Amino acid sequence: NWEYIGPMLSIHNIKSAGVALIQKNSQSDRFFNELRISDNMKVIPINSGSEVMIQHIKDGYYLGLISDQNAGIKGTEALFFNNPVSVPKGAAAFHLKTNTPILLGFCILCKDLHYKLSFHELDLKGLPKKSDDAIVEINQRFTKVLEETVREYPEQYFWFHRKWNREMYKGISRY
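^ that's the sequence the OP posted. Answer follows.
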C-alpha cells in the first residue's frame, strides 16, 4: 500500500522524494520508478548519499524513507512485538541533522476499497543528548507506532523480506 503515498501527495501538490533501492533487474527498476515518479514526486536511489537527501529536504521536499525493513548490522535494535529487530538509522539521523519532524505515513485499504492515507508526527520530545542514544530512542518510538498500526490492521501487513533476525525463523517452514 505504501506505493500509493507518493502519487497521493503529488496529486495534492505536495513535493516529495522517495529513497528507493535499485532493483537488480534494470527493467523492473525502470518499471517501478516510472510508476513512482510524477510532477511533484522524485525517486532518489539509495546510493545517492545523505547530502542529496538532505538537499531535497532543504529544497522543500518531504523525504520518504521505508524504514520497516531489517537493517542488519547497520541498524539499531528495537523491540517489535517483544522481539528484537534491526531498524534503519536514516530517518532518525536526518531528524538530528535537519531538525525536521518525522512523519509516519500509513496507507490503509478500507472496506469500500478506497485508501485512507494518514500521517502521524512522531513525538520527539525528551530525546537523549547523545546522538547515538537519540537515534536508538527515535527508532524504538517509530517501531512502537508501526507495531500499533500492524495490530490495528494485521491483514494489511505482509513482508516480502525477513523482518526479524534469521534466528527467529528457525523451525518455521515457508510452505
